[in-house]
Design brief:
Elements: E1 3-9, H1 15-21, E2 23-25, H2 32-41, E3 47-53, E4 59-66, E5 71-72, E6 96-97, E7 99-111, H3 112-117, E8 135-138, H4 140-150
Parallel strand pairs: 1-3
Antiparallel strand pairs: 1-8, 2-7, 3-4, 4-7, 5-6
């Protein structure tokens, strides 16, 4: 099993939205590295931290699970969608996504400030200067440290 951090603007799609929907495709990614994570590395059953960005206190707020293998990101094919890519076609969708499934809310949010202060998380992707990826890998050690700090 692998672990991930999935970052979203809470106003666009929150952990409460995922709980309501049950599953959702992680669409709209237009970064090749992140696309490659979804296409080549993320597997059904992998666990992820659901992270709210662009809030007063950015934080990990829940747990999700990868619920599908790679599928075409339909937003790239829809001319009415803000993530439309005219180079994408059904035969060559270019942009890939996975579906994620709601698992649970954390007992309490774990803020970015708290992550920065936690020993053992210094190399975590979300904490790296200039990190803007919407999905980053999380090591098993980092996962365990964060899960322990949630209790």
């Amino acid at each position: 099993m692998q672990y991930w951090l999935l970052k979203t603007d809470a106003e666009s799609y929150s952990i409460d939205d995922l709980k309501r929907d049950g599953t959702t495709p992680w669409t709209g990614v237009r970064n090749y590295q992140v696309r490659n994570y979804m296409r080549d590395q993320m597997k059904v059953g992998d666990k992820g931290f659901f992270y709210h960005s662009n809030t007063a206190e950015p934080a990990i707020v829940g747990i999700c699970e990868v619920a599908s293998g790679p599928i075409a990101d339909e937003t790239a094919l829809d001319p009415k969608d803000s993530h439309y890519d005219p180079k994408a076609t059904p035969a060559n969708p270019i942009w890939i996504c996975v579906e994620v499934k709601y698992m649970k809310h954390l007992k309490r949010p774990i803020t970015l400030a708290e992550l920065r202060k936690t020993k053992g998380l210094e190399k975590m992707g979300i904490l790296q200067k200039g990190s803007r990826f919407s999905i980053t890998p999380v090591t098993e050690k980092e996962w365990k440290i964060i899960m322990k700090s949630e209790s």
